[in-house]
Amino acid sequence: MESTINSRGQTTVPVAVRKALRAKPGTRLNWVLLPDGCILVRAKSRSVLELAGMLESSETVNIEEMNPWRD
């Protein structure tokens, strides 16, 4: 795979890489320069706070309904 860096230092991440990283717009990437000159790119893990509200539910569960599942 190949991409070109533009005059602003930007490049397009190839589709296959985006799919492998499960990257979507707004995904932050970590770039690590390895001693052999290779670069490792990883999708940055999200914090629990960033994930809050991702799963929507129309039904609520109260504490009494959860208690049987505790043990």
Automatic annotation (TrEMBL):
Start and end residues of each SpoVT-AbrB domain: 1-46
GO molecular function: DNA binding; DNA-binding transcription factor activity; toxin sequestering activity
Alphabetical UniProt keywords: DNA-binding
GO BP terms: regulation of cell growth
Family matches, as InterPro entries: PrlF_antitoxin, SpoVT-AbrB_dom, SpoVT-AbrB_sf
UniProt feature coiled coil, ranges: none
Top-level taxon in the UniProt lineage: Bacteria
Protein's name according to its UniProt entry: AbrB family transcriptional regulator
Organism the protein comes from: Paraburkholderia pallida
